[in-house]
Amino acid sequence: MLIALDTSAGDPPYEQIRTQIAAQVADGQLPPGTKLPTVRALAETLGVAVNTVARAYRELEHAGVVTTARRAGTVVNGDGVDRAAKEAAASYAAVMRSLGVRQDEALELARRAFDRPVSS
Fold first, then answer.
1. What is the pLDDT of residues 73-118, one digit of tens each?
2. What is d(CA 70, CA 76) in angstroms, rounded to the nearest whole number?
3. CA distance 5 to 12
4. Into which CATH architecture does domain 1-120 fall?
């Protein structure tokens, strides 16, 4: 697993960690069952606070990308399609919240997007 943080980027470090891990899972670099480094180990490697990595892992878990168990650590989940769909939904929800769009409006926008014909 390779993560590079860009201090000049607009995204906070936890978001950079989250997106890079999610991308590596989505493209198969981190296959199901892969155990991620501990929060402390990754924080030390990246030179960030433990809470920064912990937040990235929590968001990945919330999106269904990983599962965390106290003794087993954090492990990449299976079923890439389900995982990718959950990640996309979480990202969509975050963007809609940041735009101030209410949940019912965001869901209606998604419904309309599904109703549109797919362009080639």
1. 999 987 656 667 777 888 899 999 999 999 999 999 999 988 888 7
2. 15
3. 9
4. Orthogonal Bundle (1.10)
Please give the structure tokens belonging to residue 34. 């892969």
The answer to pTM > 0.85 is no
3-state secondary structure of 9: coil
Q: Give Cα 32 distance to the centre of its chain.
A: 15
Domain boundaries, the chain: 1-120
79 Rama class: left (phi>0) / alpha (psi -120 to 50) / beta: left
Query: What does the alpha-carbon distance between residue 94 and residue 16 come to, in Å, rounded to a whole number?
Result: 15
Quickly tell me which residue has 């599904």 as its tokens: 114
* CB atoms inside a 10 Å sphere around CB 87: 22
